[in-house]
Amino acid sequence: MSDGASAGIDQRERGFLRLEWAREHMPVMAKVRESFQRERPFRGMKVAMALHVEAKTGILALLFREGGADVRLASCNPLSTDDSVVASLKEDFGLSVYARRGETNEEYYDYLNRVLDIGPDIVVDDGGDLVRLLHTERKDIDTVIGGNEETTTGVVRLRAMEKNGVLRFPMFDVNDAMMKHFFDNRYGTGQSTLDGIMNATNLVIAGKDVVVAGYGFCGKGIAMRMRGMGASVTVTEIDPVKAVEAIMDGFRVERMSQALRHADIVVTATGMKNVVRYDDLLQAKPGLILANSGHFNNEIEVDVLVSRSMERRRVRDHVDMFRLENGNRVYLISEGRLVNLAAGQGHPAEIMDMSFAIQALTARYLAENHHRLERRVYPVPREIDMEVARLKLESMGVEIDRLDSEQERYAESWEEGT
């Protein structure tokens, strides 16, 4: 569709088209939807969700409702909301959504509290703020039987709560499900981070010196995609095993203070605060571009960058220039927030198809088994991972081998040798 034609589409209609496009490219979710509409596993239950509010998450929210739930949805990041999708979810589907792009800090928490006002049975969180509120300001809510956590940052917080003995209900670590982190974190984050940076800057990647902070699955995906676009990639790490892995994968490994001296672009993906410090930026290569692909906007020392810089100026829609105390210039994309959603379109629909199928099926497992679960962090049951993998292969028209009866006996025996 030409720009002239699309200009005639209002915001609600644009959101509806984005939702329809996502639905059409999420075949695993389509299979889950069939069973949910038939079985209604969440009949009479209330689901509170805090996710990046865009087309793919909209389809997940609608899936919970199709499974019988009363659903409320808020954003888990002030800059990751697609306002057109919010408009369509409200007007076309009658969904209770509390989100807008560019929320203030006060609005962000007000919206999370409005979602919790439903008195949820199940929470679906991304980053851990919804669960944190339930353990601090909203202890009055005692209806929650458990929930799911989508991302690394939230899982780290949950494990700290479990270790400290304060977790009030069981939570599932969706992030570390095989069909989530193998594909969402690596291929989804890799592609969508590149999309956000290219959209924000309109600069070539080939020939650039790119530093990736963190070599978990997200960092691996970013490093892989950057190298595929022709960049020279350096990895920074605190984990010696991951550092060795990065070297064996063909990447240079350095400390951040050293890598900044030659970097053209730095992308953080660690889940840790202050990975890029202001004082180190004073020694950075002039014109450095900073982007964050971690959940929170604290991986780059943004507050100090704002307070100590001599000048701040918006130079592109998603890019601010900061002139440092020594006169050096650095460019920050999307205020240091999640670059793939704040400046891009988020993960591809086919990727989120698998991740959100994990979310939905794990929530069903929780609804059916919560009475025998303890107040701890659980892995996603292996059978759910295998079911999503099977449905994904089926949607791709791929068949794989199976063990015959003799092979099954062999696999379970120990007597037979050479």
Please tag this protein with its features.
seven-stranded parallel beta sheet, NAD(P)-bd_dom_sf, Rossmann fold, 418 residues, Adenosylhomocysteinase, 45% helix, hydrolase, eight-stranded mixed beta sheet, Ado_hCys_hydrolase_NAD-bd, disordered N terminus, EC 3.13.2.1, alpha/beta
| End-to-end distance | 65 Å
The class by helix and strand makeup works out as: alpha/beta
Strand residue content: 15-25%
Count of separate DSSP helical elements: 18
- How many individual β-strands? 15
Folded structure, characterized:
The chain folds into 2 domains: 3-180 and 346-396, Rossmann fold (3-Layer(aba) Sandwich), CATH 3.40.50.1480; 188-342, 3-Layer(aba) Sandwich (Rossmann fold). The strands form 2 sheets. An 8-stranded mixed sheet has the order 9-8-7-10-11-14-13-12, with helices on one face. Strands 3-2-1-4-5-6-15 form a 7-stranded parallel sheet, with helices on both faces. The chain is globular, with a radius of gyration of 22 Å. The longest helix has 24 residues, at 178-201. It is an alpha/beta fold and 418 residues long. The termini are far apart. It is 45% helix and 16% strand. Pfam families: AdoHcyase, AdoHcyase_NAD.
Give a nutshell description of this structure.
By secondary structure, this protein is an alpha/beta fold. The chain has helices spanning 3-6, 11-24, 27-39, 55-66, 83-91, 105-116, 129-134, 152-163, 178-201, 217-228, 240-248, 256-259, 278-281, 302-308, 339-342, 349-369, 382-396, 405-411; strands at residues 46-51, 70-75, 96-98, 122-125, 146-149, 171-173, 209-213, 232-236, 252-253, 265-268, 288-292, 311-316, 319-323, 329-333, 377-379. Keywords: Cytoplasm, Hydrolase, NAD, One-carbon metabolism.
